[in-house]
C-alpha cells in the first residue's frame, strides 16, 4: 500500500468513526445554534460585530458577505478552542482500544499514521464548519434584510480564513498527543492558556485607536485581525468617516436603534491569501515534527531497551512454555459470611488508594509544596496565586471521576456488585472530596483560626462543587474532556479573575459574603442528583 492510500484510509476510517458518534451530532447542533444566535434579529437586545459613530451603533446589512465573514470569525476563534479538545483524542483512542498495537504490527510508517490523523482531525472540524456555513443560507433568508445569495461571498471566508486555522489546530492536537507530558489534563490546561494569550493579544491589537486596515500581524493564526480590519475599513468607506477607530464583537443594547450599512465583502489580495496559507505549511511542519517524536504503541519498549532485558526478552520468547494441568487438585474454599459485609470506611480507603497509586511523583511533590505554602503563608498572600493553583492542581484526578470503570473496562465487574450507584458511586465521590480537602487543608485551617465562618462556608461550597461537577459530566459524557474544558473556563473567570458569579470558592470577600456560596451548594446537590440518575441509567444498559 503506497503512502497516499495509507493516509487516505487512516483519515477516512477515523473520520467515519467519529462522525457516527453522539458527541459529533451534539457539537454539530450546538454549532448550528451558535450560527443562529451570532446573527441576531433586529428585535434582539444584543448586537454582534459593530462600530460606533458618536452615540450611534452600526452593523452591516445581512447580506452573504457580512454573514459569511461574521460566522467565519466566530468559528475560527472559538472552534480553535473547543475544536482542539474535540479532536485531541484520536491517537489516545487507538492506544486505549488496542488498535494501536495492531497498527504497530503492520509496516505502516509513523509519518503516514500521523498525517492520516492530522487530516482526519481537519476533516472533522471542516465538516462542522461546513454544517454551520450551510445553516447560514437559512439564517440569511430568515433575517430578510438582503434576499439575494452570493455563494462566493458566503463561503470564501471559510476557505481562506477558517480552513487554515482548522488544519493548524488539528496539527497542534496531534502534537500534544505525541508528547507524553502534554497528552493528558496538563496539556489541556497549557493549550487553554496559550489560546488565551493569542486571543487577548489579537483583541488588544484590534482595539488600538491608531490601527490601520493593512496592518495584519504575522501571528494572526485565527484570522481575527484580517476580518476585523477589513470590516472596520468597509465601515469607514460606507459611513464616510475615516475617524472610526473602534470595532467591537458584542454589546448588550436595549431600546437603542441599530443602523445598518452595506458592506461589500473582504478584498482578497495576494498578501492576505499568502498569510493565511502560510499556516498550512506551518501545520505540516508541526505534523512531521510530531511524527519524529512519536514513539509508537510499543508499551514494553522501556523494559526491553537495555541489553540484558533484550536478551531475556528473546530467551523468553524462544523457549517453549509447558503448562501442567493440575486443576483436579484445586480445592476452592468457601466465603465466610463476615467477608461479604459492606464496609463504608474500607471501600473509601480503597478508592483513595486507587487515586493515589495512579499519581506521578512530581504531582505529589507539587501537592505537598502547595499544602506547606497554605500552612505557613498569610491568607492575604494566598488568594492571588496559591489558592487558585490549589484549585486547578487536582484537575487530572477530578477529570477521571465517574469514568474509571469505562476507561479500564471494569464496568461489568463494578455494576454486578450490590447497589453500585448508592454505594460505590457515592464512595468514589466522597474520595474525591477527601483528596480536595487534603490539598486545600491549609486554606480551611486559616479560615477556622481566623473565625471567618462566611469564608469557611464558601470554601466548603467550592470543595463540594468541583468534584460534583466532575462526576456529573464524567457520568453523562463518558469522557474527561468536557469537564476539563468547562472547569478550566470557570476557574479562569472565577478564582483567577475574581468574577463574582464564577467565584465558587469565595476567594474574594465580596463573593464569600454574598449569596453565591449558597447558590453553589444548591447547584452541587442538583448536579449530584443528575449524576446518580446517569449512574442508574448506565447500570441498566
Number of helical segments with 4 or more residues: 25
- The helix/strand series, from N terminus to C terminus, equals HHEEHHHHHHHEEHHHHHHHHHHHHHHHH
Shape: globular
- The chain-level mean pLDDT equals 79
Helix content: 55-70%
Ends distance: 41 Å
The largest sheet has its strands arranged as: 3-1-2-4
Biggest sheet overview: 4 strands, mixed
Rounded to an integer, what's the Rg over CA atoms?
Answer: 27 Å
Structural class: mainly alpha
Sheet-strand content, in percent, reads under 5%
Q: Can you offer a commentary on this structure?
A:
The chain is mostly helical. The protein has helices at residues 3-19, 22-37, 64-87, 90-97, 99-104, 110-143, 151-178, 185-206, 224-238, 270-293, 301-304, 307-318, 344-357, 361-376, 379-382, 386-392, 395-398, 404-407, 411-415, 420-439, 441-450, 453-477, 481-496, 509-513, 516-539; strands at residues 46-53, 56-60, 247-252, 258-261. A four-stranded mixed β-sheet has the order 3-1-2-4, covered by helices on one side. α2 (22-37) packs across α6 (110-143), α13 packs across α20 and α20 crosses α22. The radius of gyration is 27 Å and the shape is globular.
